[in-house]
Design goal:
Elements: H1 2-19, H2 23-36, E1 41-47, E2 53-58, H3 65-70, H4 98-104, E3 107-113, E4 118-124, E5 127-133, E6 139-145, H5 152-155, H6 161-178, E7 183-188, E8 191-195, H7 202-210, H8 212-215, E9 218-224, E10 228-235, E11 240-241, E12 247-251, E13 254-256, H9 259-268, E14 278-279, E15 281-287, E16 292-293, E17 304-305, H10 308-326, H11 348-358, H12 366-378, E18 383-388, E19 392-396, E20 400-405, H13 406-423, E21 429-439, H14 442-451, H15 453-456, E22 461-464, E23 469-476, H16 488-498, H17 504-519, H18 529-540, E24 555-559, H19 560-566
Parallel strand pairs: 1-7, 12-15
Antiparallel strand pairs: 1-2, 2-6, 3-4, 3-6, 4-5, 7-8, 9-10, 10-15, 11-14, 12-13, 16-17, 18-19, 19-20, 20-24, 21-23, 22-23
Bound molecules: zinc ion (2 copies).
């Protein structure tokens, strides 16, 4: 009998290594249990980032005396009854053994109460050594101390207090964004670090997590196909982060990580933002649970989705359209929101009311307003005043003053011209007076030949010429002045760089970006009045006149009001 208990304990310890690797994984398991218990308020208290203590208090349904002890038995779970159910997992936790695993490597105090009985259970190293009746209000409080005290090898893997705390914060923030109807409070060493109100309003939840500078710059998205329904908020390209951590995607209520989804989101921002920066998004995806395979990793974040290409397309097109209809000229006084502004936890309610009043018109179809605004801007009649430092054009219209970056503007014009040319069936070509021969290494040569068609389809005339050498005889006419023949070499390089996993769309986009940059007026180039005028006329005709194709701003606006403010004519 004793032997059996020991081996089970060992199994739990091994499982703990799989499920519990840091304080955040303990928090995750406990909080998911609270959610499954129907809690509407969940409070997580950490000491030293969880290294000393992790306590989770919820107002869920609680357990009776029997369940309170069973909860720590391996494979005990109230959530799965038969094998079939595995395919219809809609609750968050389903592995059952998590609690047993945690209990096997820590000291646990559980106080729980359902309608009629309150119970206190104490467990150390997986052994229940105390069960007593205990007066408590309905819900469960579970306290974990001395994590990994009996597995020193694991203990080593725990990180510093700050890292462990940050992992927990990031996890709770993401979770809170997926459960906007649950109020979460996370404290570390008695300091409140995350607090949401459980209002059921996603934008408000975003506000509580990210603060005013983010919540006031979010755009709503909503779309569906037969298989997928998406909704949520995406940040304007003026609000970006330096990493992908804030691409929050939630599938059927579960926070997930999926690189295909992240790529589709990021691609939709192409040319609207700097490369290497990422937007903040919170997107809920609802789909038939049979299309989702969540069981591929014990931490349950990575998932497989059937028909993911359809989902990618839906995300890409929806985000692109919302950005397109909402992109406006950045105002001169716009706040720089690259910073890591954290919300002021005391004033969030008040701040949120102001955004609701000033930024969002929930009652009205905001979409129509935005489209007409965009069209208005495109009809702008910009009148050039002059050029400064050979780089910027100053222009005005009746209401505002504008500063235009001449290179960025010209690059945008060229980029849109080229991407339009791609779609035309008739191709005009320019023959080179002196064909350009390019020598490559054997592997480059082979990679190039494999993908050569992508260029010949565009109108390039390229022939093989001796060993590892190609010769360019003609190129499409849309490559024009500003682009030196020697630069054709970099087009060949681009084909080779895209190499093995060649993706035609990606290649064509980077080709358009490269060619348009090389063809465009540089900084420090004097322009005549007529040239400036023509440039501005072409710019306002663009689909997105506000950024160069790499996402840098091309035009900045100073309204008369802003000028008056700067000169203190108005206060
Ligand atoms: Zn450029
Ligand atoms: Zn650029």
């Amino acid at each position: 009998m004793k032997i059996k208990v020991m081996s089970e304990n060992l199994a739990n310890k091994i499982a703990a290594g799989e499920v519990v690797e840091k304080c955040a994984s303990v928090v995750k398991e406990l909080v998911e249990n609270s959610i499954d218990a129907g809690a509407t308020h969940i409070k997580i208290n950490l000491e030293a980032g969880g290294l000393k203590k992790i306590e989770v208090i919820d107002d869920g349904i609680g357990m009776d005396k029997e369940d309170a002890q069973l909860a720590f038995a391996r494979h005990a779970t109230s959530k799965i009854y038969k094998d079939d159910d595995l395919y219809f997992i809609e609750t968050l936790g389903f592995r059952g053994e998590a609690l047993a695993s945690i209990a096997s490597v820590a000291e646990v105090n559980l106080i729980t109460c359902n309608n009629d009985t309150g119970t206190h259970v104490h467990i150390k190293g997986g052994n229940i050594d105390l069960v007593e009746a205990y007066g408590a209000s309905i819900g469960t409080t579970i306290t974990i101390t001395n994590l990994f005290y009996n597995t020193p090898a694991r203990l080593k893997y725990l990180k510093s207090e700050i890292t462990e705390a940050n992992n927990c914060i990031r996890y709770i923030e993401k979770l809170a964004l997926s459960k906007e109807n649950i109020a979460f409070t996370l404290t570390n060493n008695d300091r409140v670090v995350v607090k949401t109100s459980g209002s059921g309003n996603l934008l408000k939840c975003i506000h509580e997590i990210y603060g005013l500078s983010v919540s006031s710059n979010m755009l709503e998205i909503k779309a569906n196909t037969d298989d997928f329904e998406i909704s949520g908020y995406i940040s304007k390209p003026s609000v970006l982060k330096k990493n992908r951590n804030h691409l929050n995607t939630i599938v059927n209520g579960r926070v997930i990580r999926n690189s295909d989804i992240n790529r589709a989101i990021n691609d939709a921002y192409n040319t609207y933002k700097h490369e290497g920066f990422y937007p903040i998004v919170v997107i809920n995806i609802v789909t038939d649970p049979t299309l989702v395979d969540v069981n591929i990793h014990p931490t349950k974040q990575d998932i497989k989705i059937s028909m993911i290409e359809n989902l990618e397309k839906l995300l890409y097109n929806t985000i692109k359209k919302v950005l397109y209809t909402n992109i406006l000229v950045p105002n001169a006084l716009i706040e720089d929101t690259f910073s890591n502004s954290t919300p002021n936890l005391e004033n969030t309610e008040e701040e949120f009311q102001t955004i609701i009043q000033t930024k969002f018109d929930f009652t009205n179809n905001a979409d129509n307003n935005v489209i007409s605004k965009n069209v208005e801007l495109k009809k702008l009649d910009l009148y050039p005043i002059g050029q400064i430092h050979g780089t910027y054009i100053i222009a005005e219209d009746e209401e505002s003053m504008y500063i235009i970056d001449q290179h960025a503007a010209h690059e945008r014009i060229n980029y849109e011209m080229i991407t339009k040319k791609y779609r035309e069936s008739k191709v005009d070509i320019t023959n080179l007076l002196i064909p350009l021969s390019i020598e490559l290494s054997t592997s480059e040569y082979n990679t190039f030949l494999e993908n050569k068609e992508v260029l010949t389809d565009l109108g390039f005339v390229i022939e093989e010429f001796g060993i590892n050498t190609i010769i360019i005889k003609a190129h499409p006419t849309w490559i024009n002045k500003g682009f030196k023949n020697d630069d054709l070499k970099s087009i060949i390089d681009l084909v080779i760089e895209n190499g093995k996993k060649f993706n035609k769309e990606r290649f064509l986009d980077s080709l358009a970006k490269m060619v348009s940059c090389k063809m465009s007026i540089k900084a420090n180039e004097k322009l005549s009045f007529e040239e400036m005028d023509a440039l501005l006329k072409d710019l306002v005709k663009c689909d997105n006149p506000y950024n160069c194709c790499h996402g840098r701003p091309s035009i900045i606006k100073f309204t008369s009001y802003e000028l008056e403010k700067m000169f203190k004519r108005v206060i």
